[in-house]
Specification:
The complex is a heterodimer of chains A (147) and B (417). Chain A is built from five helices and four strands. By secondary structure, chain A is of the alpha+beta class. Chain B has 417 residues and is of the alpha/beta class. The chains are: A alpha+beta (147), B alpha/beta (417).
Amino acid sequence: MDLRDLYRDVIVDHNRSPRNFGRLEPADAHAEGVNPLCGDRLDLYVTFDGERMRELRFEGKGCAISVASASLMTETLKGRTRAEAQRWFEAMHALLTRPDYQPTFDLGKLAALSGVREFPARVKCASLCWHTLNAALARSSQPVSTE
Amino acid sequence: MSAPARQSRERTAYDVERVRADFPILAREVNGHPLAYLDNGASAQRPQSVIQAEARYYEHSHANVHRGVHTLSQEATAAYEAAREKVRAFVNAASEREVIFTRGTTESINLVAQSYARPRLKPGDEILVSWLEHHANIVPWQLVCQQTGAQLKVAPIDERGELRVAEFERLLSPRTRLVALAHVSNALGTILPVRELIAMARARSVPVLLDGAQAVPHLSVDVRDLDVDFYAFSSHKMYGPTGVGVLYGREALLESMPPWQGGGDMILTVTFEKTTYNALPHKFEAGTPNIAGVIGFGAAIDYLLGVGLERIAAYEHELLEYGTARLAAIAGLRLIGTARAKAALLSFVLDGVHAHDLGTILDADGIAVRTGHHCAMPVMDFFGVPATVRASLALYNTRAELDRLAAGVERARQVFR
């Protein structure tokens, strides 16, 4: 196991300076995500322009993987549609959990998270924001859990 | 320490390498490095003698206990009950009837909550705990409060992670029906001044339960000297098997309590009209127990006494002082929990590096630590941190391992610089 696969420069950078960090009020959709194992939590806010997500922001506390993942997710999905978000969710889920997965489209900076799958204990850190996004898009107000 | 058995058997210098050789798992590598196991507060490792005791039982004497006239059942029963006597002597209980085997500390506390507290509590009654408690000494009381209308009161701590004793005393009210406290905090290592706290409760005729899970591997515990009413602890934190714990209870209290679980072994006679219960301690041991685990636990006690509790405590204290100095010298590192009386446990956070990331980076070096809230979320809230890294030390840890811990923390700083 090589730590450089996990803590790539782009991840360290997005952890140190998370993009789209903060509240968004009023938001069209909001969800809270919790990882009970480590106590990570994040609030995700989304505003829409029709089907398109105009803005995504998040705030919360977490490890470098969870913060960088949320930062990269919000940066990547800004301006994209709900349907696209679903496609990204599925691709990221596969990237984080399937060793043999080959993306069918360019994941951009999010590909940097592929190293996480070598660290099974950390997969939930990276996937927390994506599960939270799903909950927000379902307009759920219940906290979601990765457990 | 009055019992001769707890006196150190050898007065020679503490030979940690000899101790390490007793623990087969310490020879393994993790991620290409020798294992440095610093997660003993979660669960300690087992010496060969414990592993052998369990294996020997299965290979040679396995049968159910307290049930058969055949040879194996008698051997199993004798070994099981011999372990109970070892536990009795280990905590200096007055009688084997006061030693109940459970699945662990958690079950021991739940037993007291449901069998002692629940029938007695009335709406408005109070149970007093401290801010330092493990969830296992919070949630069972919350459940019984919901069941009875009683209230949970919480004695505060200070910035060192020490209990505010005067506040504790103020919270002992005419409605306090039970005090439940950690003997040693699992998240911070604080050793509570339990003798003083028990005396305060006793002066008001309030019974006291101590959660001793983190105390028994590090301190000599004498329940009669402490004058404590209930004392709960686990085998696996003191080098014994998992799935075995103990509830010590004063005999008169245990006698007054109804059985908690019904089943085999806890009865004398059963008809569909009326069942009479077995005597202590069997009244609280329904069903087939973890026989092999209990026998292994007896071997763990033998092992601890063989090394010598006082020598272990002195060695671990040395390690604690060394580790504290090593970590305190690291820029941006904050020790969480700096009680003056402390077990060998180092809980800390590092500026700009989340505990979880630190845990992964240390694991890459073969160093096992706990990261997270340590099942003590209120403690984390008090210190304003979501999680800490916890290095909890045992009798086989070394200064070299603490050097590796410090080097690993420095490396983590480099990763996130």
